[in-house]
């Protein structure tokens, strides 16, 4: 796997073979960050990466200047890999790694973020709860963006905070927006 752009663009990292994660494909990740760079200034943002997996999205955010990054991941092997990678990238001073279940974390979270990304397992039974919980718990700062990665079988266009959707084959990114006030 590689970091697509920014300061660390082109750097490769190799997760262990037995990580229980489905990393976002490079093509989809590149498309996502092209869309983000045209709509959000990532410099200095507070970000939250739910279902962190390999940490790939957080590495991209750090590479593009995000200032305070939080990753939530529950698998211990994956958490160890993320710890190792953030140390190698020398971003351990700006990345806060939380080993926890995402839904438990959301229920307890009192922080707010400019940008939230969730890349849950596609077969997750409670995937449709994520947009509801993010807005119910007020996790986004005014003007913040939440991106949910999912398959084409999920459709969030009727959600009141739906902003747009982009399809990359079996990967779909739905963008939700918190109003400025």
Number of strands: 7
Pattern of helices and strands:
HEHEHEHEHEEE
Overall, the morphology is globular
- The named CATH superfamily: Vaccinia Virus protein VP39
Put the structure in a nutshell.
The chain is 27% helix and 26% strand. By secondary structure, it is α/β, with parallel strands linked by helices.
Topology:
Elements: H1 26-37, E1 46-50, H2 56-63, E2 68-73, H3 76-88, E3 95-99, H4 102-108, E4 113-118, H5 129-136, E5 140-150, E6 162-168, E7 171-177
Parallel strand pairs: 1-2, 1-4, 2-3, 4-5
Antiparallel strand pairs: 5-7, 6-7
What does this 3D model show about the protein?
With 181 residues, this protein is an alpha/beta fold. The protein has a single domain, classed as Vaccinia Virus protein VP39 (Rossmann fold, 3-Layer(aba) Sandwich). Helix content is 27%, strand content 26%. The chain contains five helices and seven strands, in the order αβαβαβαβαβββ. The protein is globular and about 40 Å long. The chain starts with 25 loop residues before the first helix and ends with a strand.
């Amino acid at each position: 796997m590689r970091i697509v752009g920014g300061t660390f663009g082109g750097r490769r990292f190799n997760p262990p073979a037995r990580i229980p994660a489905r990393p976002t494909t490079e093509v989809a990740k590149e498309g996502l960050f092209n869309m983000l760079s045209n709509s959000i200034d990532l410099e200095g943002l507070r970000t939250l990466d739910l279902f962190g997996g390999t940490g790939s999205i957080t590495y991209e955010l750090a590479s593009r200047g995000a200032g305070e990054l939080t990753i939530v991941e529950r698998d211990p092997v994956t958490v160890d890999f993320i710890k190792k990678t953030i140390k190698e990238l020398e971003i351990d001073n700006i990345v806060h790694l939380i080993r926890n279940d995402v839904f438990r974390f959301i229920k307890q979270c009192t922080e707010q973020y400019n940008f939230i990304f969730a890349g849950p397992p596609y077969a997750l039974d409670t995937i449709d709860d994520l947009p509801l919980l993010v807005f119910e718990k007020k996790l986004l700062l005014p003007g913040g963006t939440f991106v949910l990665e999912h398959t084409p079988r999920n459709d969030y266009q009727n959600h009141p905070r739906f902003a747009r959707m982009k399809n990359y084959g079996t990967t779909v990114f739905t963008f939700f927006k918190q109003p400025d006030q």
